[in-house]
Amino acid sequence: VGDFDGMTVIVGYFAPDFLYEDDARLAAAQVGYHWREGAPSGASVLLSYLHFDDLDGLVPEGLSRTNRVSAGRLVSDFELLDLQLVARTEWADWPLELRLDLARNLGADDQDDAARISAVLGDRRQPQQWEIGLAAQRIQRDAVLAAASEDDWWFHSFARGVMPWVGYGFNEHLSLRLAAFEERRDEANDSVRRYLFDLQARW
Question: 76 and 107 in contact (C-beta within 8 Å)?
């Protein structure tokens, strides 16, 4: 590890809590390397492995969402490998972060890939600081466990979409974000458009 670099290792075993009494479990591990931590410019690589188990209760509880189902069970197992590439720098004295997130479900025979790319200029977590961002993603049907994926998006898999947003930090505790979503489910002709106000308080 370099003088200004850092390495992280995280291992955990969790009960995901899918809003019903269940035996679902998640084993997860992540290894990361971070170049020039804390400097205006730097980069990170994060490799994660997530293994979900005992998911039989999702389908009868109506939580399969966009994942495939057959004979009352999920078609695929969910054993995810996730790679994140992050670059940080400054542009016109504003912090700029570029991120690429690639995932593959090793427990699926097909429909197993997902990707998201994002760019964020500014940082609304800082007082009186603006933030402008854009994210685009494509998630195949069984690439992720839909019951546990990102809740800001309307479709949790089996879709593609874009999300531009603007945010502002009022002080060190309070920030606001306005996000717009345009998403289209696979095999559908029409897109879903939504807007989200997100007021966040931190202490």
Answer: yes
Q: Taking 90 as the threshold, does the pLDDT of residue 78 lie above it?
A: yes
175 burial via Cβ count (<10 Å: 0-12, 13-18, 19+) = buried
Q: Hey, which residues does 134 pair with through a beta bridge?
A: 119, 164
47 DSSP assignment? E
Q: Name which of 102, 101, 109 is nearest 142 in CA terms.
A: 109
Q: 141 by DSSP, 3-state: which? A: coil
Residue 26 and residue 145: Cα distance in Å, rounded? 11
Question: Residue 2 class from Cβ within 10 Å (0-12 exposed, 13-18 middle, 19+ buried)?
Answer: exposed
Q: Is the pTM of this model over 0.85?
A: yes
Q: Do 46 and 84 contact (CB within 8 A), yes or no?
A: yes
- pLDDT confidence of 127, banded at 50, 70, 90? very high
Which letter does DSSP use for residue 146 in this model? G
Q: Is 58 helix (H, G, I), strand (E, B) or coil?
A: coil
187 Rama sector, left if φ>0, alpha if ψ -120 to 50, beta otherwise: left
Three-class secondary structure of residue 118 per DSSP: strand
Three-class DSSP category at 147 = helix
What CA–CA distance (Å, rounded) separates 71 from 185? 23
**What 3-state DSSP class applies to 148?**
helix
Query: Partners of 28 in the beta sheet?
Result: 12, 50
Give the mean pLDDT of 121-146.
Answer: 98
The pLDDT, as a whole number, for residue 1 is 67
